[in-house]
């Protein structure tokens, strides 16, 4: 046997393809959600349905008119201040948009999902004397069920920044409290800190929203009274809102920030450093990944669970004026009732896509 024949040949092995980084998978989901949002808004504007909701015959007291004017102005001023603090200043300091800045922008876009609380049955109302263009729902959002959904007057000057004021911004004082607790009791786990943080967020959201509801800016008429504060009043606060919005949605972002690694990266950003792309493209991938996380959080821990509560709510409290109802009480066989036990829920003749 020749030396050549006796020589061992290396066994050929298939090339192993590197796994797709988690951040890229998140980014693809974020891109799909963003495309859907653009599609819905484009359909809404092109359909001609982007028009203010008629407040109806009931007059708004002058004191209330002045209040809702100033609450919108103050909200916008707070939004500008928060945008500067969370996005602009860190961007200037770091030379790029930071994780907390990106999350702030993502939270600004959550207003898109806000009317989805009424997807199957009306459960939230807004004062139509606020600046609005109706809602991008019935006729624009695929599969929309509840009647006259496009009449919900989304208060654009309030709701866009509202998710960052009573929402994202609450994460940071809570994180400060959790850091102090960690210093005092070093043995406490991150799971324990996250649980405590979520409970604090539920309490904060309940306190802030309960106060705001008394102003008549918006209302939660569709609640299960056994788990509702001030049940039966026009300013009632269903604890399902506090639990699933305060504890669920805000809590999801709190957990994301709490579980950052030593480099300050969230688990959504895993693999970002391995991407062989330009820094600007890497920033785009990171933003889309965080965008996906924020919107999926709202879909799965708030929007979907709230559908069950909406379809199991007790009767609406009495006393809402026309500029709060806005034609949304179109249930029952004659389409003239508010949703509640035993009230027929009409379905659309077709599901527009």
The SSE order reads HHHHEHHHEEEHHH
Helical fraction: 40-55%
**Span between termini:** 74 Å
Total count of strands: 4
- How many individual helices? 10
Shape: globular
How would you write the strand order of the largest sheet? 1-2
Provide a brief overview of the structure.
This protein is mainly alpha-helical. It has one domain (66-319).
Please provide a written account of the structure.
By secondary structure, the chain is mostly helical. It has one domain (66-319). It has ten helices and four strands. It has helices at residues 3-6, 22-47, 62-94, 99-108, 156-165, 171-184, 190-213, 239-258, 279-310, 322-325, and strands at residues 125-126, 218-219, 228-229, 237-238. A two-stranded antiparallel sheet has the order 1-2. It has a two-stranded antiparallel ribbon with strand order 3-4. A hairpin with a 7-residue loop joins strand 3 and strand 4 (237-238). Helix 6 (171-184) packs across helix 8. It is globular, with a radius of gyration of 24 Å. 39% of the residues are buried.
């Amino acid at each position: 046997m020749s030396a050549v024949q006796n020589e061992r040949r290396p066994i050929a092995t298939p090339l192993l393809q590197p796994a797709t980084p988690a951040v890229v998978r998140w980014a693809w989901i974020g891109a799909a959600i963003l495309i859907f949002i653009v599609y819905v808004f484009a359909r809404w504007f092109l359909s001609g349905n982007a028009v203010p909701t008629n407040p109806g015959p009931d007059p708004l007291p002058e004191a209330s008119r002045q209040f809702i004017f100033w609450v919108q102005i103050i909200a916008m001023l707070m939004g500008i201040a928060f945008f500067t603090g969370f996005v602009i200043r860190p961007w200037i300091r770091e030379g790029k948009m930071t994780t907390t800045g990106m999350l702030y922008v993502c939270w600004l876009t959550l207003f898109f999902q806000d009317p989805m609380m009424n997807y199957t049955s009306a459960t939230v109302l807004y004062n139509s004397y606020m600046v609005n263009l109706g809602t991008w729902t019935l006729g624009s959002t695929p599969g929309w069920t509840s009647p006259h959904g496009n009449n919900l007057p989304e208060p654009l000057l309030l709701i866009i920044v509202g998710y960052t004021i009573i929402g994202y911004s609450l994460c940071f004082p809570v994180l400060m409290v959790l850091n102090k607790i960690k210093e005092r009791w070093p043995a406490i786990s991150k799971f324990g800190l996250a649980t405590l943080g979520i409970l604090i967020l539920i309490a904060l959201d309940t306190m802030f929203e309960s106060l705001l509801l008394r102003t008549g800016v918006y209302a939660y008429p569709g609640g299960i009274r056994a788990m509702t504060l001030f049940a039966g009043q026009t300013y009632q606060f269903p604890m399902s809102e506090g639990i699933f919005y305060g504890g669920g949605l805000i809590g999801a972002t709190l957990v994301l920030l709490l579980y950052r690694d030593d480099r300050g990266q969230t688990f959504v950003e895993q693999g970002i450093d391995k991407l062989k792309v330009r820094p600007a493209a890497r920033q785009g991938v990171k933003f889309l990944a965080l965008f996906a996380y924020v919107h999926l959080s709202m879909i799965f821990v708030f929007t979907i669970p709230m559908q069950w509560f909406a379809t199991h709510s007790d009767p609406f409290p009495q006393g809402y004026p026309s500029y709060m109802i806005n034609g949304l009480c179109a249930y029952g066989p004659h389409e003239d009732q508010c949703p509640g036990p035993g009230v027929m829920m009409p379905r659309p003749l077709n599901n527009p896509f």
